Amino acid sequence: MKRKLRLLFVFLSVAALFSSLLLGCSTDKNDSLKKVRVAEVTRSIFYAPQYVAIEKGFFKEEGLDVQLTTTWGGDKTMTALLSNGADVALVGSETSIYVYAQGTKDPVINFAQLTQTDGTFLVARKKPEFFSWDQLNGSTFLGQRKGGMPQMAGEFGLKKHGIDPQNDLTMIQNIDFANIANAFASGTGDYVQLFEPTASLFEQQGIGYIVASFGTESGKIPYTTFMSKESYLKENRETMQKFTRAIYKAQLWVENHTAAETAKVIAPYFEDTTIELIETVVDRYKSQHSFALNPILDEEEWNNLQNIMKEAGELPKEVKHEELVNTKLAENAVK
């Protein structure tokens, strides 16, 4: 009996030692990864390549431990970045212009583009036999927040088709982003500007019908980009090079795989959305080339962004491409 107890003690001691060694190796391995805190403006299928980079291990391959937080709003996202609550922000490029216009000594620099079109769709309450933009004349339109990129791209699309947003229809802009869909579902408005997957979900449920894409109408713009403070980029250049390289790997992966394959990978980020709906949304964004094929934010896209802001009366000052955009990291990643 005593011999069995001694053997059991030896076995447990060896097992404990082995486990502690494994734990030590695991901890050392995790500690060897460079932490990068990312604040995303919202949780969206629109950002599929970012989630692919995490789930497929592209960041870890580069020695990075990306800690993702959803900050729910452009103002909150930029506040997190400026107050050092985040190292990288994923948000619309217009926010970097707003910060720059306020005279900051440490400007926010766009270094990797994730999406290259607007991500919203025009949803009509009634399904038309055919759609033409002039059908919006005299209607009530539920728009997005004034000064935000969705609203500016939406107004740009309306004006492109000869519609004055302030005079040719009733524009509602005083509803919080989180409540716009609910307001439309409860009967407010003839048309609404919605992101996915809500637009497709409404179509499935017969609440509304997608009749046009604002992404197609507004053309290529740096709609959502990764950005950091200039000081952080200088002090962590190699880390940000690795980060950008991982994003590019994910962009290529999404481009070269089916919507169904992408949907399967990113599904854990959208537990309340069916895999079929995720696939539908990914396919729609891929078909209109919303996902950037590489992280390079070129000058033409930057100027298009400022033109849209200027048209909406929201451009505080014109800013040269080289002032707020660093393309070197993205260009190196593509090489």
From TrEMBL:
Gene3D superfamilies: Periplasmic binding protein-like II. The keyword Nucleotidyltransferase does not apply. It holds the Pfam family NMT1_2. Residues 1-24 form the signal peptide. Keywords: Signal. One of its GO terms (cellular component) is periplasmic space. Belongs to the bacterial solute-binding protein SsuA/TauA family. This is SsuA/THI5-like domain-containing protein.
